[in-house]
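Subject: sequence -> structure tokens, single chain

Hey, anyone have a minute? Need the predicted structure for the following. Not urgent.
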Amino acid sequence: MTTVNEISALTTTTATTKTASQESEDRFLKLLVTQMQNQDPLNPMDNAEITSQMAQLSTVTELGKLNDAASAMTASLLAGQSLQAASLVGHGVMIPGDKIELSGGVAYGGVDLTQAVDKLTVNIKDASGKVIHTSDLGPQDAAGSVPFQWDGTTDSGTVAPDGSYTFEVLAEQGGKAVAATALAVGQVGSVSLGVQGAMLNVIGLGPVAMSEVKEIL
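Reply:
Had a minute. Here:
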């Protein structure tokens, strides 16, 4: 029968730094040793019961190692994502959103299409929600992002003042509406790190995740 001293010897370690899996293993062994030291001498644990508990220890250890490996992989991915995000500072990006900023007589926006369309229209709206300009972008033969530019001219022939506007997109194929997403254009001013990973702080649009970027300009 395995003795208490033999089990206790397994808990000895010379490592100065322990991983989470090693700490779990130590706690398990200490509990097992304590259990054996306080067992009923008239009804001691048999080898089968000890073997069963050691098998549980093996399972706990493997799960701990798997958790350590997953943590290391996550840290590596976050580091890589942070470097990639930092390289976008100063660049323009297209992200989901209906805001468009007119500055110096020019404004930029985009549309994300799920498929080819034979008609694509953009309606620019003022602060009250009134359509002040309609732009026909024509047919698009492929899915993906479609950029557009507005010079500030309204349908009435006047020039809109610089400022913030919104827009909507309408797409059709064969006379039927097709899903299309409005894309706002902004410049990445900085990058912040949080529990959700690297976030791009886009000037005028706020923080967005890397996964939301449809195109880098």
